[in-house]
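A reminder before we start the practical. When you read a complex entry, don't treat the lines as separate problems. The point of joint prediction is that each chain is placed relative to the others, so the output describes one connected object in space. Small molecules and nucleic acid strands, if listed, are placed in the same frame. In the example below there are two entries. Take a minute to note the order of the lines before looking further.
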Amino acid sequence: MSVWQAFIELLKRDLRLAMRRRAEIANPLLFFVMVIVLFPLGVGAEPNLLERMSAGVVWVAALLAALLTLDSIFRSDFEDGTLEQLLLSAQPLSVMVLAKVVAHWLVTGLPLLLVAPLLAMLLGMKSEAMGTLMLSLLLGTPVLSLIGAIGVALTVGLRRAGVILSLLVLPLYVPVLIFGAAAVDAAASGLPVAGQLYILAAFLAMALSLAPVAAASALRISLS
Amino acid sequence: MSASPNSTLHLQADSVECSRDDRLLFENLSVEVSGGEALILEGRNGTGKTTLLRILCGLRRPDEGEVRWSGVPIEECAVDFHRHMVYVGHLDGIKRELTALENLRVLQTLSGRGRYSVEEALEAVKLGGFEDIPVHFLSAGQKRRAALARLLVTDARLWVLDEPFTSLDVHGIELVESLMDGHLSAAGALVMTSHHQVHLSAGVIKRLNLSEG
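Here is the predicted structure of the whole assembly.
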């Protein structure tokens, strides 16, 4: 049985599971929408102010929504013992971890990406910046899932992992937030954005190659 | 390094030691099991039966000593070892939202195809007719049967079972015992813990009591 087949099978399993508990998909999306919709109500509907803050607000909301869902990458598998089976499978664990992270991103990251332009418009973001917003989220949100997987893998054995997970993961999220929001800001001011996007792409390449291996080792420790 | 299905299978724990929360569970413990043999771990609660099983299947590393599969430390032949070993622990390792069929199909893909197809395995554990129902709606015993069907969908030659009879009824226990007999007479090996009396008619049965010494 090839590794690729196992990757696809596990990805399909996780997507099927997500379809059977839709509330969990809706949760982060709802959070994302609520934060952004409530924001103008809180700070006042002053178009210039909102427009200037829009990039940061969308990115911060996306980051927190991602953080909210991280635990679900491994938690339920840990609790029902399927994670043990994954560790004992005859396939490389890092590839299996990657399959789970991809599924997690498709279920939680992709919907955010799709509604982001709508919400950005709500905040009055310039239409020139929309493309960059989408691109920066496309490059950035998978990094959030990948880094998060390491954090969850390390804390999955703990009973109350919430706080420690945030403390562990947030510092690593900050660079993604900074460059993501900066790219959108630059686009809104008509400046070149290639630099920020390249850095985000570099983050993604690094996370894709290192995070699955790190998370796999962390899982081995957590389950021993 | 590789153990082909035809080579003699041999799992050996060499003077392993393990302590948990500063309490020594066992030290200098050596056990081995080869094809056609069943090793039954006995002992009171908290004597480290489950811990020893987890060490034997490579989920946990012993503090001292090592576990060898056909003479090779299991860390060095992990993929080969895992292909020939199947573990059913306290947790069923079954997703409640998925049907038994979907669960087993994933497990089969992860560990390699065996003699039985998924449908045949479910038939063999008397879950025929329940394959399309999410496991969530099955009883505890049926859920356990679905977990044990995993033994059949791979061609694992070493079964490591932690309390396999939990929540099974009399018929279920007989059924699992007959599966074990079949496995042992096909020169498979078995390591298990159980609080029930185990009635096996095939194979050589070894017992190890962890409460003593």
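Discuss with your neighbour: The longest helix of chain B spans residues 170-185. What might explain this?
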